[in-house]
Amino acid sequence: MDKNFLNDFPILRSKMNRHQIAYLDNGATTQKPESVVRSICGYYGGCNANPHRGVYELSVRATKIYEDARRKVAKFINARPKEIIFTKNATESLNLVAYSYGLNNLRGGDEILITIAEHHSNLVPWQRVAQATGTKLNYIYLNADGNLSQADIDKKLSNRTKILAVTQISNVLGLVNDVKKLAAQAHEVGAVVVVDGAQSVPHIPVDVQNLDADFLAFSGHKMLSPMGIGILYGKRKILEEMPPFLSGGDMIEYVEEQATTYAELPQKFEAGTQNVGGAAGLSAAIDYLQGVGFDNIERIENDLTTYTISELKKLPYVELYGCDAPNKVGIVTFNIKDVHPHDVATILDAEGVAIRAGHHCAQPLMKFLGQNATCRASFYFYNTRRDVERLIEAVQKVRGIMHIA
Ligand SMILES: Cc1ncc(COP(=O)(O)O)c(C=O)c1O
User: Fold this and answer.
1) Does the C-beta of 90 come closer than 6 Å to ligand 1?
2) Known catalytic residue: 375?
3) C-alpha 378 to ligand 1 mean position (Å)
4) Which residue among 57, 115, 130, 296 is buried most deeply as judged by most CB within 10 Å?
């Protein structure tokens, strides 16, 4: 019998349009347990000061909270603390790699390889870097089941490929890419591997050594933490050779009128006052996730995903995307024939069911799927089969409300 997680997440006991909320938009952001909220309040209530700068006790406490969080994140993904850079979110982490590594290491004739299933955060920065450096941006397309085409990978990965940037789990299809295998293949041709872990780190165990990823980007808010704290992991040797991305206070060693030397890792990439409250929340979130355990997280999400797909498949007017592949985690994407996804989401909202509708920041993927928009239900371990039943009951009302026979 699973723990009743609702006891730890007061917001999940609250109402939306007079119904208890069925929160199925975890791909966008997750809810926060009381322990995370307490840790943020605890920081601001008892330890708030600018870290790294003051010699007084409060500042030392803030520094400890911040650096303890870094150590915890490092252990969580099997990295070293110096290889963990705190950012604002996964988007900033990916921009950091694109601008600091990409801009400085690419030249005409080189290629960047990404997949058509990337979130705009792992696509637009590469487009801009490709334009600025005169390099080519190549795409890996998908098979009919939604998985990456191995034939396309074999065709497009060559010694011209200098960067392979790939999501570990697609935020639209929920399909898990075999990043370890991709990284091995990319390293054989000398490419650097950038992994977008925004949808994977919160849901499956991720070990950067095992994957042999050169970079991994993810966001705290998709894994129970507050918004405003993100993480970039990078291999130490590569990070050491990269120039700073943002510059200003805290990232320097010595500043003269015309030149500056930079701080060591990770401070070189952490300019300005950092989000210590966010780091405190992230620390508590990792403790909470480890208490639940990834075995349980995966088991619960698999059950909810399979149950949702089997129930939606019973409805002849529902079209599902990427739902026939086994390597799927916690995300179900669908459309109801003849109804715009925004109308679907609005009708579900009236029933207290929160889903996402739109292009999910993946317009090239939408175009590839032949859709302008879709509906997406995305789960976390605190969801229940009752949430799924509420989703299905609401979906069954949609066509009637829209007066479609
Ligand atoms: C796969 C993927 N990458 C990157 C991001 C960007 O995350 P953030 O908005 O937290 O920077 C998202 C957010 O939905 C995502 O799903």
Assistant:
1) yes
2) no
3) 13
4) 115
Rounded to 5 degrees, φ, ψ at 354 are -100, 110
Domains of the chain by start residue, with CATH: 5-25+293-401 (3.90.1150.10), 47-290 (3.40.640.10)
CA distance 142 to 140: 7
Q: Tell which one of 223, 282, 361 to mutate to probe ligand 1, the residue whose CB is within 8 A of the most ligand atoms.
A: 361
Q: Are strands 331-336 and 374-378 parallel, antiparallel or unpaired?
A: antiparallel
| Structural tokens at position 259 | 């030149």
Whether 166 is in the pocket of ligand 1, judged by its Cβ within 6 Å, is no
**42, two tokens:** 């605890």
The DSSP code sequence of 31-62 is ---HHHHHHHHHHHHHT-S-TTT--SHHHHHH
Is the entire prediction scored with pTM above 0.70? yes
Pairing of strands 192-196, 215-219: parallel
Rg (CA), the chain: 22
Ligand 1 center to 201 CA (angstroms)? 12
Q: What DSSP string runs through 371-402?
A: -S-EEEEE--TT--HHHHHHHHHHHHHHHHHT
